[in-house]
């Protein structure tokens, strides 16, 4: 555990693979920049790898004041032991007050390991972050300017706000896609700080001989139009109507977790709390009841069209346009109408 340094910086872990920065830390930069400005401190970024110093320019353009670069041949590939050791040393040296990671596979592995080593708390899968005060119950003590770590809890049925006032740094992982990515400022200036790294092969559990990464079949976060189906679609055969409507609109097919679990479509298309968070211009929800877990991933859509045969479905409370009817009758008519106007 490090001391509670209320003048400490806000930090983001800049996850990169093969010399390419992942989207999630870039999404975090906008929110982290706002937190740092509200606290009146610098925004720092941890950049680990081998031969990655050149990525600092991009991180500065996205809002970093300082980029802490840790380069070493043994950091070329991500391993829990090596990365957590380096970050542990950086945190002890510079004492940031907030450390943020993307809730990616890497962030979910790395964040808890660092938090455990430092004996600090960590809130996983946050959907929002704010700065606020906290008054201790039955006491006059008020802790100012804490990180309010906001996330769904109890299966998404409530929204919890979690604080850490006595064991710092305040640490959290943030879900992919929930923070809008800011536009980079190519004129921004920042400081690049090269950190010394001491690692030996004996400290690593594994030797990585080769690395393969499967690319997602669809980039839902970039889609302007999404046609999504839920368990109410009924079958994999019926789900072909989702694909047909999506093809007519030049849209990306999406799905709820229930539809994915039923085998209607693969996980890459899943939208929601355990899938991708999206903000398309148009979201068409077909046979989707509208559970809060799904709403968490698509409620930011500019326009929502819901098609469901249950007039009391929760999705209708969120939708801008509501169609009550059998999707097997409604979708073919929509497809026919669209094709006739093309």
Question: What order do the helices and strands come in, and which of them pair?
Answer:
Elements: E1 10-13, E2 16-17, E3 20-21, H1 23-39, E4 43-49, H2 56-61, E5 66-71, H3 80-94, E6 98-102, H4 105-118, E7 122-126, E8 128-135, E9 142-153, E10 158-162, E11 170-174, E12 191-195, E13 225-229, H5 240-249, E14 252-255, H6 257-261, E15 282-286, H7 292-298, E16 303-308, H8 315-318, E17 321-324, H9 327-341
Parallel strand pairs: 1-4, 1-6, 4-5, 5-12, 6-11, 7-11, 13-14, 13-15, 15-16, 16-17
Antiparallel strand pairs: 2-3, 8-9, 9-10
In short:
With 342 residues, this protein is α/β, with parallel strands linked by helices. It has nine helices and 17 strands.
Based on the model shown, name its key terms.
single chain; 342 residues; alpha/beta; Rossmann fold; 2 domains; five-stranded parallel beta sheet; 9 helices; globular
CATH architecture of the largest domain: 3-Layer(aba) Sandwich
Number of helices: 9
Largest sheet: 7 strands, parallel
Structural class label: alpha/beta
Could you walk me through the main structural features you see in this protein, from its secondary elements to its overall organization?
The structure is a single chain. With 342 residues, the chain is of the alpha/beta class. It folds into 2 domains: 10-203, Rossmann fold, CATH 3.40.50; 220-341, Rossmann fold (3-Layer(aba) Sandwich), CATH 3.40.50.1220. Helix content is 27%, strand content 26%. The strands form 4 sheets. Strands 7-11-6-1-4-5-12 form a 7-stranded parallel beta sheet, sandwiched between helices. Strands 14-13-15-16-17 form a 5-stranded parallel beta sheet. Helix 3 crosses helix 4 and helix 5 (240-249) packs parallel to helix 9. The protein is globular and about 65 Å long. The mean pLDDT is 91.
């Amino acid at each position: 555990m490090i001391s509670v340094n209320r003048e400490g910086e806000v930090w983001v872990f800049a996850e990169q693979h093969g010399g390419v920065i992942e989207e999630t830390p870039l999404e975090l930069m906008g929110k982290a920049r706002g937190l740092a400005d509200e606290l009146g401190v610098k925004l720092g970024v941890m950049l680990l790898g081998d031969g990655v110093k050149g990525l600092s320019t991009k991180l500065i353009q996205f809002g970093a004041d300082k980029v802490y670069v840790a380069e070493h041949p043994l950091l070329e590939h991500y391993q829990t032991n090596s990365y957590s050791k380096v970050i542990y040393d950086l945190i002890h040296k510079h004492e940031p007050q907030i450390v943020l990671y993307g809730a990616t596979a890497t962030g979910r592995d790395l964040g808890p390991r660092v938090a455990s080593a430092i004996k600090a708390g960590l809130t996983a899968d946050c959907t929002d972050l704010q700065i606020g005060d906290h008054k201790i119950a039955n006491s006059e003590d008020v802790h100012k300017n804490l990180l309010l770590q906001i996330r769904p809890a109890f299966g998404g049925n409530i929204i919890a706000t979690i604080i850490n006032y006595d064991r710092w740094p305040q640490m959290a992982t943030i879900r992919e896609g929930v923070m809008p990515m800011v536009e980079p400022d190519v004129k921004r200036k920042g400081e690049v700080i090269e950190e010394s790294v001491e690692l030996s092969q004996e400290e690593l559990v594994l030797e990585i001989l080769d690395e393969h990464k499967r690319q997602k079949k669809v980039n839902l976060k970039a889609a302007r139009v999404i046609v999504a189906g839920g368990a109410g679609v009924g079958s994999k055969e019926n789900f072909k109507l989702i694909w047909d409507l999506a093809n007519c609109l030049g849209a990306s097919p999406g799905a709820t977790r229930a539809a994915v679990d039923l085998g209607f479509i693969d996980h890459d298309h899943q939208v929601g709390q355990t899938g991708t968070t999206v903000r398309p211009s148009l979201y068409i929800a077909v046979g989707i009841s509208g559970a809060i877990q799904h709403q968490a991933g698509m409620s930011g859509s500019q326009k929502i069209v819901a098609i469901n045969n249950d007039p009391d479905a929760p999705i209708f409370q969120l939708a801008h346009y509501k169609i009550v009817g059998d999707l097997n009758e409604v979708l073919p008519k929509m497809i026919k109408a669209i094709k006739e106007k093309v």
